[in-house]
Amino acid sequence: MVLDLFLKGFGRVPVFIRGGGRGSVRFGGATEPLVWGDFELYKSGKGGRLILRSVEVKYDALKLRGSKRLILTAINWAKMLIMYLEEGRADDKVLSCFYWALKLLEEGVPVEIADWRFVWRWLNIWGLAPEPETEIMRFTARAEHDVIKNIKSVESPEHSVQLQNAAQRYRLFFKGIM
């Protein structure tokens, strides 16, 4: 079995689990998606492949797993990371952005805000974010600020639809430049 791990300072790295496919080696929930922890790895003698020895889980996104909408949002973000981050190229700022986006979901920030914020901040880290001069940017930035301060402040369906549209536009923009 092979896992894609995002390692601080190393980026996306394929790691093998000896016996993982047969079920003879068990790591419990430590090899589930969205788990953050201290991973002990070693290199195999032949081929120099990285093998997982042990994991100490630090964060498991367990609160997200109770909601289909939250876990699907988080999994979609993880898929984007796998799709757009090159193997072996460290991008710790983007991973930090991902971690804090997961934490926002756990704290109850509306999915639309967290989604917009994650995608826009990723684009901003890479220097690709649209300028904040547009009306939708001013609106979403204001809504983000209000929601982070007071989660109850953006509850109208109109806000939700506008944020969903903004996040979708950023996703399309993101895909168009990659």
Characterise this structure.
β1 (2-7) and β2 form a beta hairpin. Helices cover 47% and strands 17% of the residues. The protein is of the alpha+beta class and 178 residues long. It has a two-stranded antiparallel ribbon with strand order 1-2. Strands 3-4 form a two-stranded antiparallel sheet. It has two domains: 2-59, no CATH class; 62-177, no CATH class.
Protein structure class: alpha+beta
Distance between the termini: 29 Å
Computed CA radius of gyration, to the nearest angstrom? 18 Å
Number of domains: 2
Mean pLDDT: 77
Strand content: 15-25%
Characterize the main sheet.
2 strands, antiparallel
**Helix amount:** 40-55%
Please state the overall shape, judged from the principal axes of the Cα atoms: globular
Discrete helix count: 5
What is the string of helix and strand elements?
EEEEHHHHH
Outline of this structure?
With 178 residues, this protein is α+β, with helices and mostly antiparallel strands.
Descriptive terms for the model:
178 residues; alpha+beta; 2 domains; two-stranded antiparallel ribbon; globular
